[in-house]
Amino acid sequence: MKVNVITTGGTIDKIYFDALSDYQIGDPVIGELLARIGVGFQFEVHSLMRKDSLELTESDRELITRQVVNADSDYVLVTHGTDTMVQTGQFIQKHAQDKTVVLTGALQPAAFRETDAVFNIGCAIGALQSVAAGVYVAMNGQVFNVNAVRKNRQANRFESI
């Protein structure tokens, strides 16, 4: 199995500089994490952009979707900010129906000690290997169809709708 990983930015790659929450989106961490874990499959990381998902435009979603459609594997993992992850997933779904695509991210940056990033990435990798072709969101230990999930900002988690 080969997995194409597309990184778009978001909290998973944020680096904070001070107590006032000044941050920037740093280099993607997923390649290093997958290598350190010693995954038993090939992967290729494509750093597409470094944006907070609230800053993504329609053109950005088109670019992400083109990258998914043109991936040289049927398995695509997209790291994405959580605020508009579902919106991007639904956009991808319109154009990449023959691929298995899982979007994931983090509610706490991967650089933080108490991050959910590694857990979410692991869940997303498991989902890629076990779900039918389609577009999914893997967050909070669950895998959701992209059309049946929402982010509950108050509870700071994803849930079925």
Record the SSE blueprint.
Elements: E1 2-9, E2 14-16, E3 23-25, H1 30-37, E4 42-51, H2 58-69, E5 75-79, H3 85-93, E6 100-104, H4 117-130, E7 134-139, E8 142-145, E9 149-152, E10 157-160
CATH class: Alpha Beta
State the major sheet.
Answer: 6 strands, mixed
CATH fold-type name: Rossmann fold
Percent range for β-strand residues: 25-35%
In helices, the fraction of residues equals: 25-40%
- Give me the CATH architecture, please: 3-Layer(aba) Sandwich
Low-confidence stretches: none
When the domains are counted, the total is 1
- What spatial order of strands do you see in the largest sheet? 4-1-5-6-7-8
Question: How much is the radius of gyration in Å?
Answer: 14 Å
Element-by-element helix/strand order: EEEHEHEHEHEEEE
User: How many strand segments?
Assistant: 10
Contiguous helical run count: 4
> Average pLDDT across residues?
91
Name the overall outline.
Answer: globular
Quaternary structure annotation: single chain
Fourth-tier CATH superfamily name: L-asparaginase, N-terminal domain
Distance between the termini: 31 Å
Which structural class fits the helix and strand makeup? alpha/beta
